[in-house]
Design brief:
- By secondary structure, the chain is α/β, with parallel strands linked by helices.
- α2 crosses α3.
- The chain is globular.
- The N terminus is likely disordered.
């Protein structure tokens, strides 16, 4: 990350508290619904010096709380591409979990189509392949009691947050907007990507299948790998010691 980016006080898309200007590869990390860049802060010291971890801060949360939330994927991808372009001057990779996987995938396709750029590797996690129909009914517009019950089943939001009125009022609009982004997404067929894709999932994740992850293979002309790790949908927070070395090895070998 450029030194000038660390001195500005203006909230930006890239939250990189520990820049590595000499790194060979930038790894841009896209969070899951409701989350901000801080979920990737524990990753910062877990990668070799050759890899600069660049968490993505989407509008409407954490340091960008005052900014409007996106509710559609295409405008989100266009805005993200515009923000990231100055930082794609060296090899780069994308990691995204759940909603973040969808954002990373569509951003890779957008950059290829509009700018002739392609990541050296696409890591997708916790999301079935985009060409598969979503069989779960949409939840983003449910009344609050039903919406809260769905969130409890997903097991990604602490119960103490859901029980706290002020925190709930802060978080629910973010979650509704993020779910709307995912639930209104319409896959458009296109040529497979020319970069390798690695798909990851939690073995105990009830919201996706091994077959759904395996179907990501159709989205690349290059190598594909599937990794099933212990844990549920949020395995990436509980089993970093298994996930991060795998990502690092694939990037260092490039």
């Amino acid at each position: 990350m450029r030194p000038s980016d660390q001195t500005t006080k203006r909230p930006t898309w890239i939250a990189c508290p520990k820049p590595r200007p000499q790194a060979r590869i930038r790894l841009f990390c896209f969070p899951y619904s409701g989350a901000g860049a801080s979920i990737f802060y524990p990753w910062l010291d877990r990668f070799p010096e050759a890899i600069e971890v660049c968490p993505i801060q989407l509008p409407g949360r954490e340091s960008r709380l005052a900014e409007p939330l996106f509710t559609q994927l295409k405008p989100l991808v266009r805005a993200a591409a515009q923000a990231l372009l100055p930082y794609l001057d060296k090899p780069f990779a994308f990691f995204g979990h759940s909603l973040g996987a969808l954002v990373g995938f569509e951003l890779a396709r957008y950059l290829r189509r509009e700018h002739g750029l392609i990541p050296v590797h696409l890591f997708v996690s916790g999301h079935n392949a985009p060409q598969l129909p979503d069989r779960d009914p949409p939840i983003h517009a449910l009344p609050e009691p039903e919406f809260l019950e769905k969130l409890r089943r997903l097991n990604g939001t602490p119960e103490e947050v859901l029980q706290h009125a002020e925190l709930r009022a802060l978080l629910l609009p973010i979650l509704r907007a993020d779910f709307q982004v995912a639930e209104t997404y319409v896959y458009e067929p296109d040529e497979p990507l020319d970069c390798p894709i690695s798909a990851f999932g939690g073995i105990q994740d009830e919201h996706l299948s091994r077959e759904g992850l395996e179907a990501w293979r159709e989205q690349t002309r290059a190598d594909f790998s599937l990794h099933m790790l212990p844990g549920d949908h949020f395995y990436l927070n509980t089993h970093r010691r298994l996930l991060l070395p795998t990502i690092a090895r694939k990037l260092i070998s490039l």
